[in-house]
Write a structure and sequence with these properties.
The protein is an alpha/beta fold and 587 residues long. The protein has a six-stranded mixed sheet, with helices on both faces. Strands 4-3-6-7 form a four-stranded antiparallel sheet, with helices on one face. It is elongated, with a radius of gyration of 35 Å.
Amino acid sequence: MSGRGRARGRSDGTVRRMVGLFAGSRARLCAAGALTACVVVGTLSLPVLSGRAVDCVVGAGQVDFAGLARELAGIAAALGVTAASQWALTAVTNRLAFDAGLELRRRAFDHLQELPLSYLDSHGHGDLASRIVTDADQLVNGLLMAFQQLPTGVLTIVVTLAFMFALNPAIAAVVALLTPVSVFSARFIATRSARHFSGQTHLRGELTSYVEEMVGGISSVEAFSMEDEVARRFARTDAELGQESFKAVFFSSLVNPTTRFANALVYAAIGIFGAFVAMGGGITVGGLSAFLGYADQYAKPFNDISGVATELQNSVACARRLFELLDVEAEEPDSARAAVLEAPRGEVALEHVRFGYDEKSPVLRDVDLAVRPGTRVALVGETGCGKTTLINLLMRFYDVDGGSVSVDGRDVRDWTRASLRAGWGMVLQDTWVRRATVRENVAMGAPGATLEEVRAACREAYADDFVMRLPEGYDTVLDGTASLSAGQRQLLCIARVILARPSMLILDEATSNIDTRTELLVQRALAHLMEGRTSFVVAHRLSTVRDADLICVVADGRIAERGTHEELLAAGGRYRQIYEAQFAPTL
């Protein structure tokens, strides 16, 4: 199958799914159909009524005023019904289109939260945001045009032809013979613009993703003087987007002048041929006037339909991107036998665990580890050795490729994800503070916490002082990463875990952004929090893990060494090398 054939196949499937969005709106669709008929009939009755009014004026002093009054009253009534129907049609179709866009956007966002972390890690966040926001808006715009202009235009063409054949079949036949000129020209242009609209939506998502990435790392860009390179890449992608947009707009803009030329050709043919018919007595002057009015009514829908076809090409391309997101398989659901983990003891075991983000490059090859409840475990090793990967497996952000991870004697896949993750408290090196008040950010894991409980957790995390210096204290709305320093955000994340009081803890470089003095204080708070709780601590600085009950050195996809601080130093292996590399220069 050719590339064009495959694209058409995908488009057809997309159109069917777009139509499926309105499966539950049949009443509104029927109302829109009835109102469309009222608008079309009311509009097309005007040329007939106007022609009759013209025929009421026979000549000088020969005017049928009674008949003229009736026709004028009919014109007024038709105008009133048409205007009211058009208003109601706009209201109904707006509701149809915006409800469909709202539902699709909601489904896409809900599905986004169900996707496996592997998908989110491998796709640009800006592109995903562009699909849910920009593409959904473009889809709504196309649906609005389709609802308001496409049915009206098609029905207008059909009814107008019927009226013209009723007035004079010979003149109507001329119109019918010239109609394919408008149809084929519009179709030719629409098929050419489809490819460019699809390319436009793809490049728009790519550009959005790049901008989001660069804005998020602007400090690093400026620190390494990468502004020129970043600007060049942006300009290159922007230029490609500009070219695709220009081609899409260029082809779509050809629709109006092309169809207007074809319509003018039809109008001229009616005028010339109709004049000969009128001179032969085949039609009255009023009838010819009505015919010319119908010619104008007949021509307009082709312009509208051509415009709708062009806009729909863009909407179908945007809808396809949304449906592609919805078609991504959600995270594997909890198994039917999955149980709820209540009050976990904290017994953790890893048996022959094998895992890799890429099948060809395993990160963990054969990891065995048994942890008794209440044990404080430290994971150390070189960057990229798999420490954080072990954490991801414990939280079941990823599932193992081989072996098993168990909590309280049961494979983590046999616990529900929600209860498993609720049993863990995490503080990561990469902190996340959402746009909300300080209180809401700290109480994320304990939504029902009182203000005093939030303050107590912040005092324990040594965050209360700087929070109280904020303009509104705990009611200050934080604006993402701009309101606080990296260290302050990390203190809030530590307070968040302290407030939640989980049964098990994961600390991944939890104090990496905090100054030395505050770190010592926070370490005491964390040490108190870890008492009696199974805890996994990932750290590069060995001073923070020397008091751990068990230290595991991760290397070559395995746990190369394990033991206490003193035991590992005495063994003289990798741990001793890491320790001496950190502390020997200061001796």
